[in-house]
Amino acid sequence: MKNIDSYTHVRGESVYLDDIPLQAGTLFAALFDSPIAHGKIKSLNISEASMMPEVVKIFTTRDIPGENQIGGIIKDEELLADTQVHFCGMPVALVIANTDAAAKAAVKKIKMEVESLEIITDPRVAKEKGELIIPPRTFQLGDTVSAWKNCDYIFEGRTETNGQEHLYIETQGAYVLPQENGALKVFSSTQGPTAVQRTIAGVLGIAMNKVEVDTTRLGGGFGGKEDQATAWAVLCALAAHDLKRPVKYSLHRMEDMRMTGKRHPYSSDFKIGLNKDLKIIAYEATFYQNAGAAADLSPAVMERTLFHCTNTYFIPNVKATAYSCRTHLPPNTAFRGFGGPQGMFVIEAAIAKAAEHLKISATEIQQKNLLKSGDEFPYGQLAESEANECWNKAEADFQISKMQQDVADFNTSNTLFKKGIAVMPICFGISFTKTFMNQARSLVNVYTDGSVNISTAAVEMGQGVNTKMLQVAAKIFSISPGNIKVNSTNTYRIANTSPTAASAAADLNGKATALACEAILQRMKQVAAAELKTSVDDIKIKDGFVYSNESKTELSWEKLAMLTHVNKISLSELAHYTPPGIYFDATIEKGHPFSYHVYGTSVITVTVDCLRGTYEIDAVKVVHDFGQSMNKMVDIGQCEGGIVQGIGWMTMEELVYDKEGKLRSNALSTYKVPDVYAAPKEIMVEALETQKENAAIFQSKAVGEPPLMYGIGAYFAIRNAVLAFNPTAHLPFDAPMTPEKVLMGLHAQIE
Ligand code: MTE
Ligand code: LUZ
Ligand code: MOS
Asked: Same structural domain for residues 375 and 451?
């Protein structure tokens, strides 16, 4: 089934936040944000700005009726700076004007004097100074201290992974309409409508039941709107509540890049020990997460780094410690993979280092240590592994060894161009690691004409979740998809929602939708049985008609809907779903946090131009564990997008903050994302054929985040190509592997 949005997307008819027709009297917002990363506010002068034509009001902390607080996990983030600024881009004053241009012009007239305080941008420095968001956490399995003795080889090293700009096509924004009795209707481009609702209530000091948040779809979120869509909606709500007029704020791209947090940069240390058979005996890692100036989702992101620190390998002795370090960057946030990719890069770097010193291919170490079913993760859960199945199918379908030989042959006969190859096996846990967040509700209404309306907590952001919700209802009711509509996500229809995140939206909301549909179907079957004078067990609905004892009747789905209503039986159901069997005890850091894991193996080949330092990604070939995909087009689209996004993070997207904490890569002229030319020449995604049971909706495993991590292979493929040119190249494990770094690496020697 095609993505149900494809028709309106192609025709430009899909409605995003900026497409909502404006009510008469709508006001526009703009922010004065801090130009300095850390300091005491000495004075804030808004008088000249207030006198500007068309300016209606300028809001500062003094105008906040409730709490000046937007922190989700920890209440450590002010909406508007009060006495201090903590990062460049921190909101300080909100200008409301009759036009967008007037609001922006007035911002330029605001003057702030700041007494500078020390600026920290490096997470290791923050850790040394005791600037931690939460106490450190350690995951442990076996005993590394005694295991080192049994290792024949031990390698140590350090890695850096940089942040990543989300670059959703639709920037952040919100539009708030005041309603009667002090209520607000909020249109927000958010992955988390409930977080927006709760935070508006807190900042305004009103009850959550007065805040209706509605989200039709996002032009991409990628985690950047899980938490960080909230501030803009709250600012609009603050003004709309006060002025009793509609208020809109849709960020300019440069404002968005400057003011919002990104994927967390990490600096990490590793120590890996292997025996003669290349079994990894012990692994230690220390992660320094650059959280930025406030917690945001950093504690949860840090936790997932620990969960994924051994990627898809079984290592009997592990000790991994993570620090969430407070710096003066914008608070960093969720980004596809949520700390997992950062953890996985480090173990892959450790394996690469071992392989390079042992003069073997990293694939030998990787393959020997893949998880088997029953192996224990460092957090206590036992694997139901597809790691070997994916690797073996990749070997069978793509002939990895032959590909490696072809690369070696090419490299012997070419001097200025070198090819590189790397294999990247992945394993990603599905569930929110905060166990209570794994719940969802779905409201299904069947109308008397047989048409169906579904509301869930899932937010459509291009990942196709609405299409999947529709498929669930179409399959259970056995009616035409054309008879079903999926509603916008709305906190008045579905309350207390988890954000659409953790790749879990289709599972959680799909299973809730399935429960709701089954309950309605059961009632309708009872009505049909009474009407046809047979037992419920003999009734089936197939392709829009009631079947009695396997034979088609005159009773259509539409007639049955009306008949059910006339019998005073409800055609609506609100169902609640929470996955069974997951728990985690943070006091011992053990449990069964994930419903299941998604596995896969990618093989990446690249060609490096050794004169220029430029490179091309030749091919990415993947065997991916879909379970049994309920929508191949959507799921392969998720793989392709994730792969390219992962390659971008690892190779070309270079986030640059200077020592003053100012973002230098603050526009698309200085921040390069993969375009169609930089994307791999070939992407091939093969499904691992398996009929095994799993906990996913219709056995169709979550697919949103895992494919991003295939992109990590691009880093190591390029590294291998550089080493083929210059075996003593100086190449620290410092991602992204930009053409500049490749060029320096190609021609520099290890000191
Ligand atoms: N795909 C598109 N097109 N746009 C997005 O913003 N976000 C990703 C992924 N795929 C995203 C996307 C992220 S970060 C997540 S967590 C999942 O989609 C969320 O949706 P799901 O739970 O329905 O997979
Ligand atoms: N968000 C979250 C996530 O709040 N908890 C998670 O475990 C998670 N995992 C991946 C992506 N977003
Ligand atoms: Mo995705 S990082 O869970 O929004």
From this structure: no
Does residue 145 sit within a domain? no
- Cα(396) to ligand 1 centroid in Å equals 30
Give the global pTM. 0.98
- Same domain? For 368 and 399 the reply is yes
Residues with CB under 6 A from ligand 3: 191, 221, 223, 226, 334-336, 338, 501-502, 705
For the CA of 297, the nearest ligand: 2
How confident is the chain (751 residues) per 10-residue block, as mean pLDDT?
95 97 98 98 98 97 98 98 98 98 98 98 98 98 98 98 98 98 98 98 98 98 98 98 98 98 99 98 99 98 98 98 98 98 99 98 98 98 98 98 98 98 98 98 98 98 98 98 98 98 98 98 98 98 97 98 98 98 98 98 98 97 98 98 98 98 97 95 95 95 98 98 94 97 84 48
Cα 370 versus chain centre, distance = 25
Q: Which residues pair with 685 in a beta bridge?
A: 622
Same domain as 17, residue 110:
yes
Residues 592 and 705 in one domain: yes
The ligand 3 atom at the shortest distance from the C-alpha of residue 499 is 4
Provide the residue range defining the domain that includes 645.
266-433+587-746
Task: Judge if 532 and 454 occupy the same domain.
Answer: yes
Taking the C-alpha atoms of residue 17 and residue 716, their distance in angstroms, rounded to an integer, is 40
Instruction: Tell me: do 45 and 26 sit in the same domain.
Output: yes
Take residue 698 and report the two structure tokens written for it: 């219709």
Active site residue 705: yes
d(CA 526, CA 535): 8
Please work out whether the CB of residue 641 comes within 6 Å of at least one atom of ligand 1: yes
Residues pairing with 138 in the sheet:
321
Identify whether residues 101 and 212 lie together within a single domain: yes
Cα(642) to centroid of ligand 1, in Å?
A: 9
Residue 467 CA: which ligand is closest?
1
Nearest CA to ligand 3 atom 4: 223
**Which residues have a Cβ under 8 Å from the Cβ of 277 and sit 6 or more positions away?**
368
